[in-house]
Write a structure and sequence with these properties.
Blueprint lengths: L1 E8 L9 E4 L9 E10 L2 H7 L2 E9 L5 E8 L11 E4 L12 E5 L3 E3 L6 H5 L2 H14 L12 E5 L4 H12 L3 E5 L3 H10 L3 E3 L5 H7 L5 E6 L7 H7 E9 L18 E4 L4 H5 L6 H14 L7 E5 L4 H12 L6 E5 L3
Parallel strand pairs: 9-10, 9-12, 10-11, 12-13, 13-14, 15-16
Antiparallel strand pairs: 1-2, 1-4, 3-5, 3-7, 3-16, 5-6, 6-8
The chain binds NADP nicotinamide-adenine-dinucleotide phosphate (NAP).
């Protein structure tokens, strides 16, 4: 099969950072699907893993944790999908990624591709939708059915891949959403995703929240360095509020600062279920099926903003450089093989 892989960890500008290779076809076992990959997205996890270091990969390493495609074959124990089904999924961080023509993935973390989207539009969604869904509806216990409608959510970094779908999921649950963005175009994008109010994360956030008539919020979804926004989040969260963060902390944070407000803090890592093979790992199948249903019902829209074609090393290098710029709005996808 064709694959885009790395042997050395190099800057994306280096022509050797990704290589177009032929690798052996993988074979599905147990509950695994063999998927013919049609489109893949690039996330910051890819660029973090590719970051330069002294290590050689032999055999070469395939990255990529967002795909859409069609089931080519099924392992003997598969129950959810059959050959020919169109699927979309993020996959597992402890397995090879999906930047290859054929890819093996556990069916319990795969969803049926939204029927109303093409492959590129679908590949933009799984990793970020799983993250935002688990963060809002599991970690923060927000009811997607609207029981908490009217409560307020602050999304720190609303225009990025995760923020773009988090805003939409929170609106679907009836929340009032305040998103942060620093450029006119990223602010406009947040409004397009459904944000009720946009403030600037390069300026004083608590002051802007006071100006907006919301000095404190019920929930905070942080998608940037956790320690960098810690004191802001401590100040902005309501008593009994919930904060969820999806980004590691560059410095230790003082958890005790939340005690006075009896506020809680959770981590969300989309890869936890697959990595630890948790008993409820099939929830990710259910979440992706639910998101596909919401997309097809017109309740959510794809966050795709740019497609590069075909899927090859040159385009993957370009995609990594764009994601690393820190200026992504929505999602970037590579589609089709040469
Ligand atoms: N735990 C998990 O399961 C999980 C899952 C997915 C992603 N993540 C992590 O979550 C982070 C965000 O991912 P993403 O895909 O949403 O990123 P992204 O698409 O690359 O985010 C791009 C956006 O970041 C904003 N930004 C840049 N610097 C900022 C700052 N100092 N404060 C606030 N916003 C800033 C920019 O907005 P402006 O241009 O408007 O400033 C830009 O629009 C990454 O670190 C990623 O690894 C974790």
């Amino acid at each position: 099969m064709k694959a885009v892989a790395l042997k050395r960890y190099l800057p994306a500008s280096n022509p050797e950072s990704f290589l177009d290779l032929e690798l052996p076809d993988p074979k599905p076992q147990g509950r695994e699907l063999l998927v013919r990959v049609h489109a893949v997205s690039v996330n910051p996890v890819d660029t973090k893993l590719r970051s330069p270091k002294d290590k050689i990969e032999d055999p070469p390493r395939v990255l990529g944790w967002d795909a859409s495609g069609v089931v080519e074959a099924t392992g003997p124990d598969c129950k959810l999908f059959k050959r020919g089904d169109a699927v979309y999924y993020a996959g597992s961080i402890v397995r090879p990624g999906c930047d290859s023509e054929l890819h093996v993935v556990d069916e319990r973390i795969v969803g049926p591709k939204p029927k109303s989207l093409d492959d590129a539009q679908a590949a933009a969604l799984p990793l970020t939708a799983l993250t935002a869904h688990e963060a809002l509806f599991d970690r923060c216990a927000i009811d997607p059915g609207g029981k908490h409608a009217g409560r307020t959510l602050l999304v720190i970094n609303g225009a990025g891949g995760v923020g773009s779908i988090a805003i939409q999921l929170a609106k679907l649950a009836g929340l009032r959403v305040i998103a942060t963005a620093s450029r006119p175009e990223s602010q406009e994008w947040c409004r397009k995703m459904g944000a009720d109010h946009v403030i600037n994360h390069r300026e004083n956030i608590p002051q802007q929240l006071r100006d907006a008539g919301n000095p404190e919020v019920d929930y905070i979804f942080n998608t940037v360095d956790t320690s960098g926004y810690w004191d802001t989040m401590v100040e902005a969260i309501k008593p009994f509020g919930r904060i969820v963060s999806i980004v590691e902390s560059s410095k230790p944070v003082e958890l005790g600062k939340l005690m006075g407000k009896s506020a809680s803090f959770s981590w969300e890592l989309m890869f936890t279920r697959a990595r630890f093979q948790t008993a409820d790992m099939e929830e990710q199948h259910r979440i992706l099926a639910q998101v596909a249903g919401w997309i097809d019902a017109g309740k959510l829209k794809t966050t795709l903003t740019e497609t590069l074609s075909p899927i090859n090393a040159a385009n993957l290098r370009a995609a990594h450089a764009k994601v690393e710029s820190g200026k992504m709005m929505g999602k970037l996808v590579l589609a089709g093989w040469r």
